[in-house]
Every structure is written in C-alpha cells, then in structure tokens.
User: What shape does this take?
Amino acid sequence: GQQLNQSPQSMFIQEGEDVSMNCTSSSIFNTWLWYKQDPGEGPVLLIALYKAGELTSNGRLTAQFGITRKDSFLNISASIPSDVGIYFCAGQFLGGSNYKLTFGKGTLLTVNP
Amino acid sequence: GAVVSQHPSRVICKSGTSVKIECRSLDFQATTMFWYRQFPKQSLMLMATSNEGSKATYEQGVEKDKFLINHASLTLSTLTVTSAHPEDSSFYICSARDRTGGSIQYFGAGTRLSVL
Assistant: This one.
C-alpha cells in the first residue's frame, strides 16, 4: 500500500536555530502540502507545491517538491517561539481519487526561548 | 485566504445522545468537504468525503450509520454522531476544497467531543 513517512517525529531546538523536516512516500505524488497545527486547532496551510523540483518560500519557511516526486522537505529559518506546533506534510498520490490527501504522522517542534 | 468555520468548538454530551457538527466555507464554494478524526498526538484520520448533492464516501471501518454526513449546499456540510458513546470522544476536524483550487484543503478549527 501507499505509505508516507515523515521525520523527525519531534525536535527540540533553541530560538534562532534553523529547522529541517522531510517526508518520503512509496508512490509518486502530484501535490505536496505542508500544514502547521497548533494545540486544539485545525491545521493551517503553510506551503503548496505542484511541480517536481519546485522550491517555494513563505517568509522564513521554504519547501521543495522532490525531483523524484516521492519526497519533500520543509525548512524553517531563524526559529521563534511561535513556531512551536505540529507540522504535517500531506499530498495527493498520482491517480488518487476525489482529491483525498494522505498525511504524514507529523513533526512536533519545540522551540526553547 | 479561504476560511472554513466549524461549530461548535467543544461539546460535552451524555452517552446515547446525538451531536451535530457544522462545517461552513465562508468565502468560497466547496464541492467537496472532508471529515477527519484525530486522536491525541496522532495524525489526521480521514473518516469520509462529502460531495455536494450526493452521498458521502466513507473510509473503510467507519460506520456510516453512526456518523451521518449531509452536504446540502456548496458551503455547508454536517456530521452527526448518532447515539454517541464514550469511545466516540475525540477531536473532529472538517476541511473543504475550493472547487477551483485543486488538492488544497482548508481546515476548520475542529470540534472537541466529550461523551460522558
């Protein structure tokens, strides 16, 4: 079956440090999305990627759609305390039905001031 | 940006009662809405896909008679948890796909259901 692996599972960093997390899939994706979820809230879209090799930034966040279409990474530069939360990758498998998304298991980010 | 409103944000009910959760797209039309369930410290688990004007498509293992979904308009979908029991206690989140926006889903703020 189709699998999506997200790593790391959790990260503890100091304010000001850069962060990197990634996702790999067993099958080709045609869309990669990165979301952030704060406790007790719904996920908020950070970045959307549509083409292999695409590199997109949103403020201090940068994400890339891997050339093989089976992976993506998210970088956060100069982390701040409000970056704390759970980050999810998500995507639609090529040939997937009804725009369903597959989600990674999330990366819990803790930023120490 | 696209806004999805989910109501209520929290509900506490007695075992055996039914609970309705609403999901509205405020500034766009959503032909497809999705309902997820999330357990503590876990990822989102898709329960069902709701298409405007047609029956919902449920994921394997999700009881359609237990979780009733109605998508009567392009901006509103509802999830009714019927005869709720303590094991139904969870965080339920809806999302909506803009009919012009490809795969992107915009999420509501979630509903915390506690069944006593």
Summary: The mean pLDDT of chain B is 93.
